[in-house]
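Hi, can you check this record?
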Amino acid sequence: MSRKPKRQRKNPTEIKQAVPDQQLCLPTSFKHKIMGLQGSDINLVIQKVLTDTDMKGSQDRLSIPRGQMRYDFLSREEQVSLEKKEADGKHFKGMKVPLIEPGLQESSIFLKKWKLGSSCSYMLSYPWINIAGRNGLKSGNSVQLWSFRVNQRPHLALIKLQN
């Protein structure tokens, strides 16, 4: 009697979402906007397909799974500041980060750390649903989240890809 070899599970932190190389270019309009803000250190953080959970109004958050991130855009100090807890001692406080929306409007969004079991993700929270609605984002849309720095502070740019 022969035994089947055990299937090895991939470590979820090692699984990267495949991104076709031709879509790794930041659109010119975003490049100009970032340069106008004196932005530097521009990097693709994640490309993902928006899920039903990302678009659920009651959730009001866009998940950024660390295992799918192509670039960890936060400094060590910023990561430590995301570890600070709310008064309830349960939830992480987060930080307000400037955002360039898909329609090139400038706004701000809260970036938070989210612990799910033994793994951690980042989340873009309030006012995610308002931003998604204003830019016509729906479940199934592909988006890219880019990071850049202005005066050493993290900024984000959200781009809707043509589906």
Notes: The domain at 26-160 is CATH 2.40.330.10 (At1g16640 B3 domain).
